[in-house]
Write a structure and sequence with these properties.
By secondary structure, the protein is α/β, with parallel strands linked by helices. It contains nine helices and 14 strands. The protein has two domains: about 130 residues, 3-Layer(aba) Sandwich (D-Maltodextrin-Binding Protein, domain 2), CATH 3.40.190.10; about 100 residues, Periplasmic binding protein-like II (D-Maltodextrin-Binding Protein, domain 2, 3-Layer(aba) Sandwich), CATH 3.40.190.
Length: about 250
């Protein structure tokens, strides 16, 4: 009877642990590697060099320093896209997102966020030959946006405010695809954050004046998790002691 009771208690403990870690989700080890969801296609923020297999950029440096301040033994990177990043965080395949992921009210309902480490304006880029000069000129035109991003919503809201005509949104899977579509004339304009757009700017392109909105990038963590408070504290420290500013200057 005694052995049976001990076995039952062990089984209960295992089941409880499974419930706390979301069943099939990866449990967060307090001293194990910090698994960070990052982009692989944003120069100076998070870019994967396929020749070396290494990631480089502002957000990569932030992730490494964050892991160090959390006392983690290592940091591991997993490439995410706007279409996959939220599900990967919800499923527990990554501990946090540092992926040019802007803080919005809708996203705050799903995840916790650190204080913003970077802010940027969302811009519209066109070919110089198009002769577009203002947002209002795009009424009835086709605007390319990244699938899974919030830029499509921003463009729609802006055009509803400033133009009697709406726009036709075309969602593409990568920033390179957006740039190529603009080059070919498949879209009349593309919309993306300024820090990303600069990688695709050339002498034949211009930004339309102003920005649609200011985006604030933060570190996203599972809602109500113990990690959220730890990340928030570590990021506050990095912001107050100038570490974030140093990284921004390094990669600007």
């Amino acid at each position: 009877m005694k052995k049976t009771r001990v076995l039952a208690l062990v089984l209960l403990a295992i089941l409880a642990a499974g419930a706390l870690t979301g069943g099939g989700q990866r449990a967060q080890a307090a001293d194990g590697p910090l698994v960070v969801g990052v982009r692989d296609d944003i120069v100076n923020f998070s870019f994967l060099n396929e020749n070396t297999g290494k990631y480089y950029g502002l957000e990569i440096d932030l992730a490494k320093e964050l892991a160090r301040r959390l006392g983690r033994e290592d940091v591991q990177f997993l490439t995410v896209t706007p279409a996959t990043r939220e599900q990967l965080l919800q499923d527990g395949q990554v501990d946090c997102l540092i992926a040019c992921y802007s803080i919005t009210e809708e996203r705050q309902e799903m995840f916790d966020f650190s204080a913003p480490y970077y802010d940027d304006g969302t811009v519209i880029m066109v070919q110089t030959s198009s002769c577009f000069e203002r947002w209002m000129d795009l009424g009835g035109m086709t605007v390319g946006v990244l699938a899974g991003s919030n830029t499509g919503e921003l463009v729609t809201e802006t055009m509803e405010t400033y133009s009697r005509k709406g726009v036709v949104l075309q969602e593409l899977d990568s920033y390179q695809a957006l740039s190529d579509a603009l080059e070919r004339g498949d879209v009349d304009a593309v919309c993306m954050d300024g820090c990303i757009a600069q990688a695709y700017m050339n002498e034949d392109r211009v930004y339309l004046p102003g920005s649609l909105a200011t985006q604030y990038y933060g570190v996203a963590t599972p809602k109500g998790s113990a990690l959220s408070a730890q990340v928030a504290e570590a990021m506050d420290g990095m912001l107050s002691d100038g570490t974030v500013d140093e990284y921004i200057k390094k990669w600007d």
